[in-house]
Specification:
single chain; alpha/beta; seven-stranded parallel beta sheet; 33% helix
């Protein structure tokens, strides 16, 4: 059972995990180095625990103690109970959901291990916006993608904003980083995947013409908002595919495009 501890000092060192949550650059360095990530809100905290992540501590406003009582009773981590204004002073923003948890990161699997059992994989290059990362993971989970592979410069799926936007779906889809980009795309192909590069280029093949749902193994490549996939990534692909547009619209944002494309590559596939 967790210990309930009332904290009144925003400089209390026990609150170190929660300090400066709005400082993106600081948190992007600190959290992986210290082996933690922040789960925000009751649903996300519960999903992180259900996914097997260990809890370091919780930070709650008093009114959330009863709602989180079963979690408090089920984890051996300290629970810091604070006033809302103190939580804001510590974190740097108003904690609307009233509940934060510091969770322990787990080592990432090797890409080759994910590829051994997957059939539908999303591959992201330079997607460094946390909102887009979260939205893409949510769609990947909802639409039956088996795994996500990230280029070295993609944003952290476990950053608080990514986790929040995904509603905890980042815990449902296994992911790994490709250490050498785009060289490691060769290993994806060697594992039996056809690499499809998503691009708005009018010369690309319409996605439905490629019929990706009929392929045994598909790796769908997605680039960053605006820039899209790099020339190197496009050259490494087996085919370039596009989502046909209407009414003079040239493209969708990467989160929306990912959802459409994920459905196209998983449609008709038996679900577990």
């Amino acid at each position: 059972m967790a210990e309930l501890l009332t904290v009144n000092d925003p400089d209390d060192p026990r609150l170190h995990d929660y300090t400066g949550l709005t400082d993106v650059e600081l948190r992007r360095r600190r959290e992986p180095e210290e082996g933690l990530f922040i789960a925000e809100g009751e649903k996300v905290i519960r999903r992180a625990l259900h996914a097997g992540y260990g809890m370091r501590s919780m930070l709650l406003s008093a009114k959330w103690v009863d709602a989180m009582r079963d979690v408090i009773d089920g984890v051996p981590a300290p629970v810091y109970v604070v006033e809302p204004d103190l939580a804001e002073r510590v974190t740097g923003y108003h904690v609307h959901r009233g509940a934060l948890a510091s969770m322990r990161r787990e080592p990432l699997p090797a890409a080759r291990d994910l590829l051994a059992t997957a059939r539908r994989v999303a591959v992201m290059e330079s997607v460094n916006d946390h909102t887009n990362i979260g939205a893409i993971f949510r769609s990947a989970a909802a639409l039956g993608m088996d795994a996500v592979l990230l280029s070295p410069d993609c944003a952290d799926p476990l950053y608080r904003r990514s986790v929040k936007v995904s509603m905890g779906a980042v815990f449902s889809v296994p992911y790994a980083r490709l250490d050498s980009w785009p060289h490691d795309l060769g290993a994806v192909r060697e594992a039996g995947f056809r690499l499809l590069a998503l691009t708005p280029d009018a010369t690309a093949t319409a996605l439905d013409e490629e019929a990706p749902h009929r392929l045994e193994r598909v790796a769908l490549m997605l680039g960053a908002e605006g820039e899209g996939l790099s020339a190197r990534a496009l050259r490494a692909a087996d085919a370039r595919v596009r989502i046909p547009m209407s009414h003079g619209v040239d493209s969708l944002n990467v989160g929306a495009a990912a959802a459409v494309a994920f459905y196209a590559v998983t449609a008709g596939r038996p679900q577990p």
